Amino acid sequence: MQGKKCRRYFLVTMLLLSTIVRAQQERFVFTTAWMAQAQFAGYYVAYERGFYKEVGLDVDIQHPTLTSSALTRLKSQQCHAAMFSLLSAMDFISQGFPLVNIFQESMNSSNMLISRWDTNPLKMKGKKVAIFNSDPNYLTYIMDRREGTHYQWVRFTSGINLFLSGAVDATMVVSYNEYYQLLQAGFKFTDESIYRFSDHDYNIQEMGVYVKRDYFEKHRSACQKFAKASRRGWEWAAQHPQEALEIVMKYVRKHHSPTNRHMQKLMLEECLRLQINKESGKREFRVREDMVQKASQMMRESGLIARPVTYKEIMGL
Predict the structure, then answer these.
(1) What is the pTM of this model?
(2) Please, which residues have CB within 8 angstroms of residue 129's CB and are 6 or more apart in sequence?
(3) Contact between residue 303 and residue 121 where contact means Cβ atoms under 8 Å apart
(4) DSSP string for 132-169
(5) Most buried in the list 34, 76, 197, 300, measured by CB within 10 Å?
(6) CA-CA distance, 230 to 162, in Å (whole number)?
């Protein structure tokens, strides 16, 4: 009997201590760019390994849905931070929705254009090209206008069936997801049929974490802590890819993501590769000022934004 009382007392004490510690931490709600997958491994690692707690943050990692996007959640104050590509963030800022980048994950473009017909996609003028419906295809539009390809756009939400069925002549994919899905489906490529944007004049870094400017000005410390712990999470994932994959699969199973372990292994490897700056050969986790200037110019010339968006705006300087 005495043992039961002691055990109950211990459990109550631990619960109280946990509540006190949690109360001392600053709540930080973060929305990823898509469903649970290895694209967000570093953030999962930072949470599971306690890196966020160590810097005093009570982080809640959420995922968007088809009816509730990351942008919608950020605008409606359902979260404090959300993931966007650099070009998306520039578009939002130009429209009067001020954002600040607090953590830059990607250093390279993952965009690829793949032809069905063993033909250079840039030579397929006027052909039907599948593009993502859920995300603005800025680089595709820019390339189409600069190269004069005049594609017929066919929108899709996700998956590769539209391409495999022959309904389109080419499709946009990202190198860490649909590209591997096509390989797993048995589709054969040649070098001629693949156009990697990063190998040409369209290498603009992609995903980063953004907050609204007013939140940034009031909570700079929380933003800095999140960036520090997230970087640590990604660096740990790069050093321990197998353990990081186990953590990813925990989230995949929890959120019922339609994928498999092999696919997530490939995705993790590619996401880690995209983080490496081609020039320095290092993971730098920073927004490149030269890429912002280049992207702003490309977006303006293509009529996608009405005014320049500067590096200082994006960094909250």
Answers:
(1) 0.90
(2) 113, 121, 140, 151, 152, 153, 154, 168, 169, 170, 171, 172
(3) no
(4) ESSS--HHHHHHHHHHT---EEEEESSSSHHHHTTSSS
(5) 197
(6) 36
Coil, strand or helix at 199: helix
- Joined together, the tokens standing for residue 195 give 């156009």
- The whole-number pLDDT of residue 63 equals 97
- Candidate ranges 18-32, 98-112, 182-196; pick with highest mean pLDDT: 98-112
137 φ, ψ to 5°?
A: -100, 60
Kindly report which listed range (17-26, 163-172, 239-248, 279-288) carries the lowest average pLDDT score.
17-26
Q: Is 260 left (phi over 0), alpha (psi -120 to 50) or beta?
A: beta
CA distance 222 to 230: 12
Backbone CA torsion sign across 242, 250, 184, 85: negative
DSSP letter for 67, please. Answer: S
Q: Which pair of structure tokens corresponds to residue 308? A: 């320049």
Name the token pair of 175.
């190198």
Checking DSSP bridges between strand 152-156 and strand 111-115, what pairing results, if any? unpaired
Say how far apart CA 61 and CA 203 lie, in whole Å: 29
d(CA 138, CA 295): 10
* Total residues found in the chain within this entry: 317
